[in-house]
Write a structure and sequence with these properties.
three-stranded antiparallel β-sheet; alpha+beta; 18% helix
Length: 68
């Protein structure tokens, strides 16, 4: 039971928020989308950039900075 309590505590500490906007790692353009409709369901996710033609598994996310 201790394992379940630790897991429950861990899940409570996770941040829940809106999905972050993703950008192309090559050119920085926000017009990046999934390569295939089967990505993340059947196959590992792969992105494609409409501007520079990048195709790959990496995309950049923009993080919000908290004012302290």
């Amino acid at each position: 039971m201790k394992f379940l309590e630790n897991t429950r505590d861990l899940l409570r500490t996770l941040e829940h928020g809106k999905p972050m906007r993703i950008f192309c790692p090559k050119c920085g353009d926000p017009e990046i989308s999934n390569f295939s409709p089967f990505d993340l369901w059947l196959m590992p996710i792969k992105y494609v950039c409409q501007k520079c033609g990048y195709v790959g598994p990496i995309a950049m996310e923009l993080e919000k900075k908290e004012d302290e």
